[in-house]
Write a structure and sequence with these properties.
heterodimer; A: 419 residues; alpha/beta; Coagulation Factor XIII, Chain A, domain 1; 2 domains; seven-stranded mixed beta sheet; six-stranded mixed beta sheet; B: mainly alpha; 69% helix
Chain lengths: 419, 286
């Protein structure tokens, strides 16, 4: 069991930003001239640019991955987490040989199959049967293997009746199920899974997670699993790796790494208005306060469980507007919504010029010790979002205490204590 | 880091060798090659009434058009060979070349979605197009044979000779040229897409530089200034040898055929080298 299945050695990947086409020939020539002809170091490789999506890089080359160095043991289910653009998918792409690393090497034992997107390579004109063979062989199965698994695949996908119908007549759900069924019945030693669970309905997701569990637990296969779904990661993975800006930040025990990741996701203290995103230029926001404070760190206690939101600004023409607030918990799950416009159906009309919005949210009085992140939106309900303050406020909820002074943390009590 | 590399099944490195054909891997994926070919042939006539008959109709229609335009209107001679036979022989070979070349030169663009998700030897895709084309050509060759038998039965004077046995060699030369040029162009269109538009024109012009609608002997007599171009064209000797062998008319020289064969091999090798360079990093470029 302790045999190493995959070994990454100093993997780095460099991308060129901007358009590729015009002007590249000269760059290519220059690069070729310095590296191959004059035997010097690659001038474009020396630049130590990190993968930072926010600041506009002054240079055209960027490192999507840098010095990735780790090993995966056979039978391990390794979760890979990180923000969007951290380099997770690039890493999997290199491993599945879709693209090459710029430096370093990967060594692996056994066949690698990737489940990057189900249903890849389906031909709409061909029948389900033909597509199973086609897709299976794209994934690297031989005809004989597919033949053996054929009935199982059809069963799992639940498309028995339609197996000789062209795939273009399938519903989207059927297509996805068939795609996953084929991929799930591949028998590679190493399976790469990237966000597949994002598709399909709840029942299908359950089936998919169950299948992945079987594959790793009972068949001893190595799985690399990229997902933003922390619950799925926690359920499936025996270890987790956190990637940030193209580098490995942390590897280790699933719960620890997930918690560390969620902490990096928290809000840095500042003003709420800093997070403002204007979606409609007919509106200008001058100030936003919660409980008469401009700060984005709010503490509430069972005695003080109100949030009073005040927004002032200007509008170019008269319009109906309302405030919407979404409460996300530490696991990034949406837990509560405040939307008086939807709830009461009364949306206030604001006149052209200066406006002041004022809403008070009354929170349940039995909240547990918890933290929420708020997304505050000014909307025209059912029509559009005018201004958004995504992830702009951190609400620290002290939570109720029992008669003995006992605290009730949300992690083992849930959102509310019941009376 | 001193683990012996031999115990690993797979080593992924930044750059492969300049020339690595890796036939073993292609052999491992032979089922995929078969599926690709099957797919191309089956989907060709899906949702048509006439089905596979279209394979036959295509060359017949083109022949009729050629007979009308080049034979009837332009009065281009056919070396005394009955027009249907003359055009059909040219079309059968030329169609294979032009169709397969157009398709292979699009390899990376059409397969972008699959190539971006799954790994398999990329050469499978252009290879399958070339082989599918070959199958289509054999079907169309049957049409040629039928018309051929008809004219012989009618008593038309046709003098086939032993050079007709060179047919497999001609096919190999043609397939090599198609695949070689195709992967060469596809590797380049990947980065500079201008070529994609250019290639359609080039193929059109190429046909006129190949003895498809005229016999080489006509050109020798009337258009000497183009002869150099026509003789440099590796397809010329393929066309002429075919007509010489089956129809007994045309120009044949071992030298010209050898030149075409050499040309074909060089293009194919060059294509594989360039394709190998590109296939590994094309996802970052396309």
């Amino acid at each position: 069991m302790s045999e190493i299945a995959i070994k990454f050695e100093n993997i780095s990947k460099q991308y060129r930003l901007g358009s590729i086409g015009t002007g590249t020939l000269s760059h290519d020539l220059k690069r070729w001239w310095t590296v191959k002809v004059r035997g010097m170091e690659d001038p474009y490789l020396k630049i130590n640019q990190v993968n930072d999506n926010d600041s506009k890089a002054g240079n055209d080359y960027v490192w999507a991955l840098q010095d990735i160095d780790f090993e995966v043991k056979q039978g391990e289910v390794l979760g890979i987490i990180g923000k969007n653009g951290a380099g997770k998918s690039t890493l999997l792409k290199i491993l599945s040989r879709v693209t090459t690393p710029t430096t370093g090497q990967i060594m692996a034992r056994g066949r690698i199959a990737s489940l990057l997107e189900v249903g890849t390579g389906f031909h709409p004109e061909m029948t389900g049967r033909e597509n199973i063979y086609m897709n299976g062989s794209i994934m690297g199965m031989t005809k004989l293997e597919i033949k053996k698994k054929f009935d199982e695949i059809v069963d799992f996908a639940g498309v028995g009746r339609y197996i000789d119908t062209p795939v273009k007549r399938y519903s989207s759900g059927m297509t996805v199920r068939l795609g996953f069924a084929i991929a799930a019945h591949l028998e590679p030693e190493i399976l790469i899974v990237d966000e597949v669970l994002a598709v399909g309905d709840a029942e299908f997701q359950k089936k998919a997670i169950g299948k992945m569990h079987d594959v790793s637990q009972y068949q001893g296969r190595t799985v690399l699993f990229v997902s933003h779904n922390m619950t799925a990661i926690e359920q499936l993975c025996s270890g987790v790796m956190l990637i940030d800006k193209g580098k490995i930040l942390l590897t280790g025990n699933t719960v620890d790494v997930i918690n560390a990741y969620l902490k990096t996701n928290t809000i840095v203290s500042g003003q709420i208005i800093d997070a403002m995103k204007i979606c409609n230029n007919q509106i200008m926001v001058e100030s936003i306060t919660i409980n008469e404070s401009v700060s984005n760190m709010i503490e509430i206690s069972p005695k003080e469980n109100k949030l009073n939101i005040k927004i002032t600004g200007k509008i170019a023409e008269e319009r109906r507007m309302a405030i919407e607030v979404r409460f996300f918990d530490q696991y990034d799950h949406l837990q509560m919504l405040f939307s008086p416009g939807h709830l009461y159906g009364q949306i206030k009309l604001y006149k052209k010029g200066n406006f002041e919005m004022n809403e008070t949210i009354i929170l349940p009085d039995m909240l547990t010790k918890n933290e929420f992140r708020l997304t505050v939106d000014i909307t025209q309900p059912n029509i559009e979002i005018l201004v958004s303050f995504p992830n702009s406020v951190k609400v620290i909820c002290k939570g109720i205490q029992g008669h003995t002074g006992l605290e009730f943390p949300a992690t083992n009590c849930g959102l509310l204590m019941l009376k | 880091m001193s683990t012996t590399n031999k115990s690993w099944d797979l080593i992924i490195k930044p750059h492969g060798k300049l020339f690595s054909l890796n036939l073993k891997e292609i052999w491992q994926y032979r089922d995929l090659l078969e599926m690709y070919i099957k797919r191309d042939i089956v989907t060709f006539y899906k949702q048509t009434i006439l089905g596979p008959i279209w394979f036959f109709i295509q060359p017949i229609f083109t022949t009729i058009v050629f007979m009308f335009v080049f034979g009837g209107l332009a009065h281009i001679p056919t070396d005394g060979i009955p027009q249907p036979l003359f055009y059909l022989s040219g079309i059968t070979l030329w169609n294979y070349f032009s169709e397969s070349l157009t398709k292979t030169s699009d390899t990376f663009l059409t397969n972008q979605a699959i190539f971006g998700k799954v790994y398999f030897p990329r050469l499978i895709a252009p290879l399958s197009v070339t082989i599918t084309g070959l199958i289509k050509m054999f079907i169309q060759f049957l049409v040629f044979v039928l018309v051929y038998i008809y004219f012989i039965a009618k008593g038309t004077h046709i003098a086939p000779n032993l050079y007709a046995l060179l047919f497999p060699v001609l096919i190999l030369i043609l397939a090599g040229l198609t695949l070689g040029f195709g992967i060469l162009i596809s590797s380049m269109t990947n980065k500079y897409r201008d070529l994609k538009f250019l290639i359609t024109f080039v193929i059109q012009l190429w046909m006129y530089a190949t003895p498809v609608i005229y016999p080489l002997s006509v050109m020798v007599g009337s258009n000497k200034k183009y002869m150099l171009l026509i003789e440099a064209n590796p397809l010329t000797s393929v066309m002429e040898t075919f007509k010489f062998g089956f129809l007994g008319q045309g120009t044949f020289s071992w030298f010209a055929l050898g030149y075409s064969l050499l040309f074909s091999i060089i293009v194919l090798l060059l294509g594989i080298v360039v394709f190998n360079r590109v296939e590994r990093s094309f996802m970052d470029v396309i």
